[in-house]
Each structure stands twice: as C-alpha cells, then as structure tokens.
Amino acid sequence: MVPRLVFASPNQKYEDNVISTSLVSHEAPVLESLRLRLVRHNYMYMGDIRAWLGIAFARHVRELVLDVNFRVSFPGSMFCSASSLETLILKNSIHVDVPCPVSMKSLKTLHLKDVTYKDDESVRNLLSGCPSLEDLQVDRGYSIHDAKIFIIAAPSLKRLSICDPCNGREGGGYVINAPCLKYLEIEMIKGCDFCLIENSPELVEAAIRNVSWIVNETILRSLKPIKRLSLNLSPLEINCPTGTIFYQLVYLEVYTHKVEWWNLLILMLDNSPKLQVLKITDCLPCPYYGLVGKKLSEQEYVPECLLSQLETFVWKNYDWTSEEKKEVATYILRNAIRLKKAYFFINRITRKCNELEERLQMLKELVSNSCHFVSKYE
C-alpha cells in the first residue's frame, strides 16, 4: 500500500524479479511515484520495462522517473493510457520514438535529460499530447543524429529551460510557441542556427547564457516585453537588433567574464529606459581584459535609465583590483543620480587592506547622502 516506490541501480540478475513482484503485489488505488534507475545486465529486457510501466499506469501513477544507462527505445504507444501522469522525467540513454501524438492530458512537468529523439516529428508528437504542460526542461546531449528543428508548441507552458551543448546541429534550432510562458532559461545553445520565440507575450523573466553568436540576435529580438533579464553573453558575438527597446525591463544582471562585457552593459543600458535595478556579477577573469575603444567616461551621452530610473545597483564578487571595473563602477555611480541603494559584495578570500578601503570610500563619495551605500564580505 506504500504510495511511492523507488528501485535504484539493480545490478544483479534477480533484482528485476523483485521489481516485478513488488509492482504486481501493489494494491494502493493510486501510485503517487515510481522511480526506476536501471543498469544494463543480461537479464534486463525492454519487455520488462513495458510491463512495469503498464502496471504503474493501471495504478494511476502520478510521477514517473526513468533513468537508464543503456539504450532503450521509448515508443509513444506506452503512454496511451497515461492519463493520470502529472510528472514525467526521462534520463540518459532513452530514445524517444513517437510516430503519433501521445495522450498525457494531466502532465504538468516534463524533464528530458540527455535523451535522444528519432526525428523532429517525435518531438512534436510528444509535446502535442501534453495540453496541460506547465514546466518543460530540455537538456540535450552530444548526439548529432537527433531532432534538428525542436518545436516547442505548448499552450499552457509557464516555465522552459533549454541546454544544448552539441556543436553539430547546423541548419537546426528551436522554435518556441508558448503564449503563457513566464520564465525562460537558456543555459547553452552552441551549434544551432536559430532560436525563435514566436508567441510569448506573457514572458516576465529570462536568463540567457553561453549561446552562439548566430542565436543571440533572434533571442534578443524576442525578449522585448521582458521585465527581468540575466545575460552572460560575449559582446563580440552580439548585435542588438535595430529598434529593440526593452521598454518593460526593470531588472538586469550582466556577467563580467566575457570579452568586452562592459560594451554589452552599455548596449543594454542604452536600450532599457525603465531600468530600476542593475546587478553586475564578477566571474573568472577573461584573458583579454582591458577596455577597448572609448572609455565609458567618453560616451557621447548618458543612458536615460541612469539619469531618471535606476534606484538599486549591486556588484557581486567585486574585483576591486581591476582598473576597468573601477571605471565601470565609477561611471554608474556618478551618473545614476536617482540611486537609492548601492551594494558592493567582496569575496571573503580577499584580504582587507588600506587600498581596498580607500577605493570603496572613493566609490561611496560618488553617491548622494540619500543613497544607502553598503560594502561587505561574503
């Protein structure tokens, strides 16, 4: 009668019988969760897995996690009776082969981690059979014999995460049609030619990190209605599309370890007239450090958001030894005339010294008395 069953790493010939016996003898009217982590051995057959899932679906399983380290073809017909399933997590060597739409009307959470797909149609058929889907996580592996154009058409989707480190998907990409999407995270897209967000008017927050230069422009163009944005991109690989003004953007985070990161910062400040909170996060130093081109103090005009909107400025892991970062911090503090809060967090391993205190004091003197200036170790 237990509501949750977990079978982890069976590696002996008798353990598959234990799984079968346990599932057959299970009598609870609803199986809340079934988790299977399977390791290849001579006594494991795909027929066993299908039988186990058939029993789980008959028990109205709500959460299913399948993690295997050997190639398993996952036909869509297995999910024709999965109407009770709310969470599905597939990991590792699973091959998704779905020639026709599945039927998972209650599914709200779908995580696909390092699985492969027979073709583009399998992706479409899998997602089209999930009309209630709200949370989708796609972590692609390195297989180039996979779906090329990954179409995500999900009318109820609210949260989407994509990671694709493979460099061999030329001619392919992602198309996102999710009218209810609110949160988007793209951790990596390396080898694709495009990432189109066609219909996401409700998008509120996005984090875009480590995407190829081809993908950058199409993503930025799609993020015009965004309110909160985190960027870890190289300005050498980015051009802000003409007319792309982020009129709703109030929170911006920029990472520093990419080449010429400060140019990305200025580009975003120029195009975000309502920005209220700016966060800069220091990462590992870039080997090409040094401000290239005009200094920030030589810019022809100050971005509108600094003069009229910016209220909070945060610098995390502030590298006080860098002259370039000192100049960026000085520029922002000097020109953000309506600033109310300024926070500089210093890495705890940094030793306190007179020079550090002097630099922080210089920065503090740049802001008005009404601005709350804080510097501390973390």
CA-CA gap between termini = 48 Å
Mean pLDDT: 85
Number of strands: 19
Q: Over the alpha carbons, how many angstroms does the gyration radius reach?
A: 25 Å
Q: What ranges have pLDDT less than 50 throughout 5 or more consecutive residues?
A: none
Could you say which structural class the secondary elements and strand pairing correspond to? alpha/beta
How many helices? The count is 8
Shape: elongated
Task: Report the sheet-strand fraction.
Answer: 25-35%
Q: What are the salient characteristics of this protein?
A:
19 strands; 3-stranded parallel sheet; 21% helix; elongated; 16-stranded parallel sheet; alpha/beta; 8 helices; 378 residues
